[in-house]
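Much of what follows relies on a compact textual record of a protein's fold. The record below shows the convention in full:
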Amino acid sequence: MAKIIALLNQKGGCGKTTIAVNLAHSFKNKGFNVLLVDSDPQGSARDWNALSDGKIIPVVGLDRESLATDIKAVQNGYDFIFIDGAPSIAKLLVAAVKIADFILIPVQPSPYDIWATADLVELIKSRQEITNNKPLASFVISRAIKNTKLGEEIKEALKQYDIPLLNSYTTQKVIYPTAANEGVTVFNMSLNDATIEIDSIRDEILKVLNGNTI
C-alpha cells in the first residue's frame, strides 16, 4: 500500500506547493512510483502540471471533503502519494491528517510562521493520541535566507509543540519559482544545488519512515 506524505500548513505562502512538487520528483528519481494529489481548490499544483502536460509527475485534483475515500480509489500502483494540502479549509485538513503516514509542515524561518501552525499541531497531536503516535510529523524550514543562521528563536518556538524539525531545509533561491513558471522542477534545470536541498529532505523523510529518529 502506498505511503502517504501530506504537506500541510494553514498559512499561505510558506512554500508548501514548491516543496511538494520538487519532493515528489525527488522520490521519483529515487525509483519510486509517485502521485501528487492537489487538495487545494486553488489548484496551484494542477496549474503547474498543465504547463508540462503532465510529463514530470502525475497530478490529480482531490479537493473535496471525501479526500480520504477518494485517495483509496487512486492509490494502486504507487509507492508514495504526496498531498499538497489546502490552507484554511478545516475539513480537508482533518481528512489529510487522518490518512497520512507522514506530515511535513513547511514554515518560513520566523516565529510568527511557526505560531500560526498551532491549530494544525493540535490536530496532529489529537490524532496521534488515538492512533499510537501516527501519523509521524516534522517541521521543515522553507526559504531560509542564505548565509544567515537559523535563529535560536525558531528552536525555542518549536519546543512547545514537541514535533521535530528536519535538519534539511530549503533556501531562498530564484530557481524554485523559475522552474515552477516553466512547469518543471529544479531537477529539470541546469546543475544546481537546490536539488541537493530537496534530496536531503527526501532522505530524512525516508529515514523517519524506516524507523529512525531525526
Q: What stands out?
A: Residues 194-209 form the longest helix (16 residues).
